[in-house]
Amino acid sequence: MRQKSRKGFTLVELVIAIVFIMMLVAIPVIFGVIRGNFWYTEAGVLQDLRVDHPDVTSVVKTERHVFSDSVITVETAKGRQVYYLDTNIMTNHKFSTSK
Length: 99
What we know:
Blueprint: H1 11-34, H2 42-52, E1 56-63, E2 70-76, E3 79-88, E4 92-96
Antiparallel strand pairs: 1-2, 2-3, 3-4
């Protein structure tokens, strides 16, 4: 009697591998939906800040936070100013000078 060769993966192994890969992809996406602050670039911050605050000359420091407002320190003609960036899904955002 001949034995069957066992090449390949079982269905359970394939399902486990697919679920693992989906989790690796989903975790960053979920955090991005919660807060878009993490992916907001300094150039984007500077451009958007200048719309309402034309005296902003440069971004000095950005502290990106996933679950709370990001802290943006900028240089203005009057000195340094701190803004808080609150975003959800990166398109709806607002800057404020207080939390």
